[in-house]
Amino acid sequence: MLLAIRDEFWDKGYAATSMDDLLRVSGLGKGSLYGAFGDKRRLFLRVLRDYDDANLLVLRERLASAARGIDVVREFVLGPTGDPTGAIARRGCLLANSNAELAASTPDVAAEARRSYDAIATVLTAALERARSEGDLDPDIDPAETARAALVAQLGLIALGRTGIDIGALTVMARSALARLLPTPAR
């Protein structure tokens, strides 16, 4: 039920999702929905937090299982280009979409975005520290700064992907950003 609610917000955005939409996709009556989750804003914040936590868990698990730390950062930046049809790129990321729509007017969304982006940057920093120890990252590159730059690159790709830009062009942009962020270390 929460996944259906999340997808409704993701596909339509917060403002365009009505309570009737939420009742329809949840299968709950108005009293049950309000009793379980409170108002629309609190329900939205709940599904946004769940979404962010699930993505962070996947990123942490990927780092734990990756053969090389650098692979985690590359896959993260390339994420929006992963679907050759471009459908994933056009849908964007629930957090990035919500941040763009609501952060200026909704402090709770801005705070959740900062929390999630900080946590992502922490995992990417760990991946880059590992990459440096594995010899895949120039020792002069600061892992924390580079992690934030990788996050910025991915968010830019998400924003461009939402415009419907050609997936091939988006992939070229992602690879170009990675080449600059993660130059091959001198051996």
Automatic annotation (TrEMBL):
Matches recorded under Pfam families: TetR_C_13, TetR_N
Known DNA-binding region: 18-37
Domain of life of the native organism: Bacteria
InterPro entries linked: DNA-bd_HTH_TetR-type_CS (IPR023772), Homeodomain-like_sf (IPR009057), HTH_TetR (IPR001647), Tet_transcr_reg_TetR-rel_C_sf (IPR036271), TetR_C (IPR011075)
SUPFAM superfamilies: Homeodomain-like (SSF46689), Tetracyclin repressor-like, C-terminal domain (SSF48498)
UniProt keyword Transcription regulation, yes or no: yes
Occurrences of domain HTH tetR-type (ranges): 1-55
Keywords from the named record: DNA-binding, Transcription, Transcription regulation
Name by which UniProt lists this protein: TetR/AcrR family transcriptional regulator
Organism, scientific name: Nocardiopsis mangrovi
